[in-house]
Amino acid sequence: MDDDLKAIQKQWADRQLPADQPPVYGVVDTTFAVAAMGPRAIHQLHQHGVPDDRIQYRTVPGFKDLGVAARRLLDAGCDVVLCCGMAGPEDIDKQCAQDASIGMQMAQQATGKHVLEVIVHMDEAEGEALVDVVDNRVREHATNAYWLLEAPHELTLRAGTGQRQGFEDIGSIE
């Protein structure tokens, strides 16, 4: 990236959003998932200094329930919701994940607040490698939620850098 583009990126990264009240985070996970996703998200938020009294945590049966849970948390005062779920390996599971995604997008659009989809497909890896994907994806999305609300400059500084959640970043082509 050339110096002019870097300067613009830095200029916008240095701008601060007004903070009138500390943000509240929502975390929703599912009983269908084969790994504890919600507690990972909460742990990562704790690493950023977010106390328990600014986190709302719910568990639903499956990922098709995530959209409703997200909407309810947003309506109850959350400023962002992390929706954590897993999709099975079959074609119908992938279709259902798409349907669930639409529900989460609808909650986001209806409230004007972010809903971060933290979906892991069970065929992305196997065994410990799948646990690593879950851990990385959940933690990085939780960090993204924190940055969206409390340190947006961190996202701006990473624009165009090929960030990935769950696997290694691919980097920029510039």
What would you note in describing this structure?
The chain is of the alpha/beta class and 174 residues long. The protein has a domain of 120 residues: Rossmann fold (3-Layer(aba) Sandwich), CATH 3.40.50. The chain has 6 helices and 4 strands. It has a 4-stranded parallel beta sheet, sandwiched between helices. Helix 2 packs across helix 5 and helix 3 packs parallel to helix 4. It is globular, with a radius of gyration of 17 Å.
Quick summary of this structure?
47% of the residues lie in helices and 16% in strands. With 174 residues, the chain is of the alpha/beta class.
| Ends apart, CA distance between termini | 5 Å
CATH-assigned homologous superfamily of the domain at 38-157: Lumazine/riboflavin synthase
**Biggest sheet overview:** 4 strands, parallel
- Beta-strand residue percentage: 15-25%
Poorly predicted parts: none
